[in-house]
Specification:
The protein has helices spanning about 1-10, 30-40, 65, 85-100, 115-120, 135-140, 145-155, 155-160, 165-180, 205-220, 230-235, 245-250, 255-265, 270-295, 305-310, and strands spanning about 15-20, 40-45, 70-75, 105-110, 195-200, 300. The protein is α/β, with parallel strands linked by helices. It has 3 domains: about 1-125 and about 190-205 and about 290-310, Rossmann fold; about 135-180; about 205-285, Helix Hairpins (Orthogonal Bundle), CATH 1.10.287. The protein has a 6-stranded parallel β-sheet with strand order 3-2-4-1-5-6, with helices on both faces. Helix 4 (about 85-100) crosses helix 5, helix 7 (about 145-155) packs parallel to helix 9 and helix 11 (about 230-235) packs across helix 13. The chain is globular, with a radius of gyration of 21 Å. The two termini are about 10 Å apart. The relative contact order is 0.16. The chain binds one RNA strand through helix 4, helix 5, helix 9, helix 13 and helix 14.
Length: about 300
RNA sequence: GGGUAGGUGGCGGAGUGGUCAAUCGCAUCAGACUGUAAAUCUGACGGCCUGACGGCCUACGGGGGUUCGAAUCCCUCCCUGCCCA
C-alpha cells in the first residue's frame, strides 16, 4: 500500500508540489511529515516566525525527533534581529523547491502564513520595489488622511482600491507609486501553474480551541525541558543572538510579546497565558479568512485518513 | 449595628435633568490585505421592521415619586466594596 502510493505519485507528478495549510495548532507539521515519509517528500516551512533562530518553543517549531529524518527547509536559519519579508521567504522556498525537485523528491510546503504561501504559489504578486525605510520613517509620522491624499495624487487608481485608513498599506502604496517602476497587479489566478495540490486541515472549533490551549500550556509549563519564559529571557539577554529589545520581542508575535510583558512585571503569568490563548484563537480565524479567499482550491480535510484519497 | 463608596449593555468603565440605545476599551461576529502578515487595518455589535432615510419596543439594581422630560433629582427596598464597632 505504502509503496503503491509512492510509485504512482512519483511517476505522475514530476514537478508537482503539495501544500499543507491550516490554522495554528491544527497539526500541519505532523501531517506533513507523515505524507513526506509515505511519498518521499521534503518539507518547506511557510511560517513567518519559524524562520528565526532560537525561537523554537514559542513558534511551535517541529523538533528534530518529530522530523523523523525528513528534511526541512526555511526554518531556524536567521537571526531574530534581522528584518525578514515575504521576498526573503520566496527566495528561500524557491531555492529549496528547485533543489528538492532536482533530486526527484516531492516538495511539501507546510505552513500557516497565508501571505507567504500565496506569494509563493503566485496567487499574489508582489511588486519588485524594495522597502525604503527612510521614506517609511518619514511617512509614519503623518496622519493617515494625509497619506491617503498623497497617494491619490500619485496614483489615483490605486487610491480607489486601497483601505484609506490603514497606514501601513498606504505607506507601501506610496512607496511603490514614488518609484519609477510600473505598478503590478495581482495575478488573480490562485494556481497559475496548476501544479499545486492544496490540502487544508480544518478542525471543529472546539477541538482547535482545545489544541491551542494545550499547546500554550505546554509552552509555559513543559512536561520536560525548558519553557517559553526561559526562551524569551534568553532572547533578551545580550549574548550571541540574543539582546533583543522589548520592542522587538513585541514584534515577534504573541508568544513573545506576552512573556515579555510578564518579565517586565506588566502582567501576571496567568494573564499572560490567557492572552496568548485568546490571541491564538483570533489568529486562527484570521488565517481561515485568508485561505478562503486566496487559496480557494484547497481541499479541506478533518483527519489523516481523508488524505489518502487525495494522494 | 454605625459610617462611607457604589450598583450602567457579555466584561471593564464614562455619563450625573433633554442633543442617550447610552463616549471609550476588551470580548464577540463579519471582512480587508501589492516586500513588517503571529503584522496592519475596517465594519457591525439591545430587540424588531426598512434597500436606505427612518420608525417602533424594551433598557442604566427593584418599586414608587418629582418633572413637559430622568441613567441622571427625591423616597424606599435589595445587593456589593471599604472603614469603625
Amino acid at each position: 500500500m505504502k509503496s503503491q502510493i509512492k510509485n504512482k505519485t512519483l511517476q505522475q507528478n514530476s514537478g508537482q508540489v503539495i501544500i499543507i495549510l491550516g490554522p495554528t495548532a491544527s497539526g500541519k507539521s505532523e501531517l506533513a511529515v507523515k505524507i513526506a515519509r509515505k511519498i518521499g517528500g521534503e518539507i518547506i516551512s511557510a511560517d513567518s516566525r519559524q524562520i528565526y533562530k532560537n525561537m523554537k518553543i514559542g513558534t511551535g517549531l517541529i523538533t528534530k525527533k518529530e522530523m523523523r529524518g525528513i528534511k526541512h527547509y526555511c526554518i531556524n536559519y536567521i537571526s531574530p534581529k534581522k528584518r525578514y519579508t515575504v521576498i526573503n521567504f520566496k527566495k528561500c522556498a524557491e531555492k529549496a523547491l528547485k533543489d528538492i525537485l532536482k533530486r526527484g523528491k516531492i516538495p511539501i510546503i507546510c505552513g500557516g502564513t497565508g501571505f507567504y504561501i500565496s506569494a509563493l504559489t503566485g496567487s499574489i504578486n508582489i511588486p519588485e520595489i524594495k522597502p525604503n525605510w527612510q521614506l517609511r520613517k518619514k511617512l509614519e509620522k503623518m496622519r493617515t488622511e494625509k497619506l491617503f491624499n498623497m497617494l491619490k495624487k500619485l496614483n489615483p487608481e490605486r487610491a480607489q482600491k486601497i483601505d484609506p485608513k490603514n497606514p501601513r498599506r498606504l505607506i507601501r502604496a506610496i512607496e511603490i507609486a514614488k518609484s519609477s517602476s510600473p505598478p503590478t497587479r495581482r495575478v488573480g489566478e490562485t494556481d497559475p501553474t496548476g501544479r499545486f495540490l492544496q490540502i487544508g486541515i480544518k478542525l471543529p472549533e472546539k477541538e482547535l480551541k482545545k489544541r491551542i490551549e494545550k499547546r500554550i500550556k505546554n509552552m509555559v509549563n513543559p512536561p520536560t525541558g525548558r519553557g517559553l519564559i526561559n526562551e524569551v529571557k534568553k532572547l533578551k539577554n545580550p549574548t550571541a543572538d540574543g539582546g533583543l529589545s522589548w520592542k522587538r520581542l513585541y514584534e515577534l508575535g504573541f508568544e513573545y510579546k506576552y512573556p515579555a510583558m510578564f518579565l517586565q512585571g506588566k502582567i501576571s503569568k496567568q494573564e499572560m497565558t490567557k492572552r496568548m490563548i485568546l490571541k491564538n484563537l483570533q489568529y486562527a480565524k484570521r488565517q481561515m479568512t485568508w485561505f478562503k479567499k486566496y487559496q480557494p482550491e484547497t481541499k479541506w480535510i478533518k483527519n489523516y485518513s481523508e488524505i489518502k484519497k487525495l494522494l
